[in-house]
Design goal:
Layout (H helix, E strand, L loop, with lengths): L23 H4 L3 H13 L4 E3 L9 E6 L2 E13 L3 E8 L2 E11 L1 E7 L5 E7 H14 L9 E5 L1
Antiparallel strand pairs: 1-2, 2-3, 3-6, 4-5, 5-8, 6-7
The chain binds zinc ion (ZN).
Length: about 150
Amino acid sequence: MSNVLNLVFNPDPRLREVSKELPEAEIIALADLADSMAKTMVANEGIGLAAPQIGRTIRLIVVNTADGPIALANPVIIKESLLSDWGEEGCLSIPKVFGDVKRKKAIRCQFTDITGKSRTIDARGLLARVIQHEIDHLNGILFIDKAKNIHEI
Ligand code: ZN
């Protein structure tokens, strides 16, 4: 059963850990957790969520796409555009704080889906930004580390 989970907030040390790679055989067993993460993201009006944000330091993220939320295990950016863009970001783990972050405009991300299948996704614009933000979480990096014009609303 999937549930809305409690969020972890900055400066919780789990947000600063490098998350663990998931053995391929274990990914399928995380389907409920991925569903719960998607529910948690939607309930909090987020567009992405990384496992450390619910206190699990494993390489699993969910992102909202035009087709609904998808889960990406062990996501790796394998190709990226030369061009970057500045854009405003926030984070469910750092409520009410916003700032401008420079991200690659377009990326190709390789990942394992929740059925254990290796896939790639091509993303540009906001989705590319969200995936880069969430992968940063898996490396213990928060957007405030990179942002300019940080402000509180
Ligand atoms: Zn975040």
